[in-house]
Amino acid sequence: MNRTVAPIALAALAMTPATAQQTPAPQQVVVMLAHPDDELPMAPAIAALARQGAEITIVHATPGDAGPGVSGMAKGDALADTRRAEAQCAGRALGVAEVDNLGFGDGRLVERVRDVSLAAALAHHLASADTVLTWGPDGGYGHTDHRMVSALTTQIVQTMPAAERPKLLYVGIPAGSLPPVPDMAGWATTDPALLTESIAYTPADLDAAKAAAACHVTQFDEATRAGMMPLFDATMWRGTVHFRPAF
Asked: Tens digit of pLDDT per residue, the chain (247 long)?
């Protein structure tokens, strides 16, 4: 009996390193944003990457403590706690591994232009990333916090050695595809020729995006939460979320 067991055990040990080499590490994706709900303009792409096996971290620089949306809540800590919970809910819906909030003041990131603490906090997450998704320099609709996160993320990534530098992608809306709603009339668009990277999504990924939108109760009324993702799907996405490479 012993002479039979030992060779089998040795064979199993011998196979372990080879098997490990055949299993690639999951792609590390960091979604670098300013506020809870900023993931929605790329939500089905995040769900698609998670479904494909990527390990995704969503980072929010602020908890959104100055943005009560439709909730009627006062600005401050209670609102911040509520929006953190909404962000965790959205992260679960999209299948991400981690949602982290850095806790900097909402609407005040411009005060951190020369403060190394924000850059250091962003850099901590970027160090292990293979791919980074963030706002473009337009910040979607010009929001200062969005632009700050985009600029600092770009600054950090461009200093990395080529062998360590993650792919940095700016989410973009193809020109001519804005949804016909007044609230989005001022959103920035991008020449489709520059949107050379894309992430296709399935109906299941779109359903995950709908579930993520439903989490942000403080920010949008029920009709908007229900209709946002189908509207984006029918206009600016049409099955594919578009990105522009930073470099």
From this structure: 444 444 434 344 344 455 446 778 999 999 999 999 999 999 999 999 999 999 999 999 999 999 999 999 999 999 999 999 999 999 999 999 999 999 999 999 999 888 899 999 999 999 999 999 999 999 999 999 999 999 999 999 999 999 999 999 999 999 999 999 999 999 999 999 999 999 999 999 999 999 999 999 999 999 999 999 999 999 999 999 999 999 9
Map out the domains of the chain with their CATH numbers: 25-245 (3.40.50.10320)
DSSP string, the chain: -HHHHHHHHHHHHHHHHHHHHHSPPPPEEEEEESSTTTTGGGHHHHHHHHHTT-EEEEEESS--TT--TTS-PPSSHHHHHHHHHHHHHHHHHHT-SEEEE--PPTT-GGGGTT-HHHHHHHHHHHTT-SEEEE--TTHHHH-HHHHHHHHHHHHHHHHS-GGGPPEEEEEE-BTT---S-GGGTT---B-GGG--EEEE--HHHHHHHHHHHHH-TTTS-HHHHHHHHHHHIIIIITTEEEEEE--
